[in-house]
């Protein structure tokens, strides 16, 4: 299990801010990025569908492909981050679902009856679902994993900026993916903050404006 550098949860969560200027010379090892994605995927997902897909762009060639479709105001993050993690929703995730639950049964995590109930209840929902529902579910799943990734980065002393300012119609193809199956959710710039740059600390609405009890 990862030993996080910062185990002060209040600091990790409450002091997270989008960072848009990174230390350009700082590289994050691919094994670390892999661990970060693995940890992000402990996120909950609808019926445990895990309809997320990550493309980690940490090469000049990959960044150049993103540059073609990123809005110019997002170029500083792209140019300076250690990696740009592009998150997609996988609208075909349900096709692996049977194997996942079968594996859980074989590991004796669930009984045969539970396996049959799950496959008989949830799988048909997805098999019959239209693209709109599959897309909506996949976007929620991937968004939860995205938030976990950003907090994981904080706990490692890194910073992030979630980004949706790009031509979403071109993202899947730019990353070599099937654009019918994979829906772009967001990209996340990750790296060491450039301490010489003053970053904005954004204001939130008063909780009273966004909260109701019934
Ligand atoms: C889905 C999403 C898309 C975003 N897209 C961009 C973007 O394209 N460029 C950018 O600089 N920040 C982007 N942001 C960051 C927001 O501007 C930022 O989260 C918000 O202003 C609150 O600031 P904070 O992250 O520092 O708390 C995005 C955030 C989210 C959640």
From TrEMBL:
Gene3D superfamilies (alphabetical): NADH Oxidase (3.40.109.10)
Domain of life: Bacteria
Entry keyword Oxidoreductase: yes
InterPro entries: Nitroreductase, Nitroreductase-like
Domain Nitroreductase as annotated: residue spans: 15-192
Entry keywords, A to Z: Oxidoreductase
Pfam families in alphabetical order: Nitroreductase
Oxidoreductase recorded as keyword: yes
GO MF annotation list: oxidoreductase activity
Entries under PANTHER family matching the protein: NAD(P)H NITROREDUCTASE YDGI-RELATED, NADH DEHYDROGENASE_NAD(P)H NITROREDUCTASE XCC3605-RELATED
Entry similarity comment: Belongs to the nitroreductase family.
Protein name: NAD(P)H nitroreductase YdgI
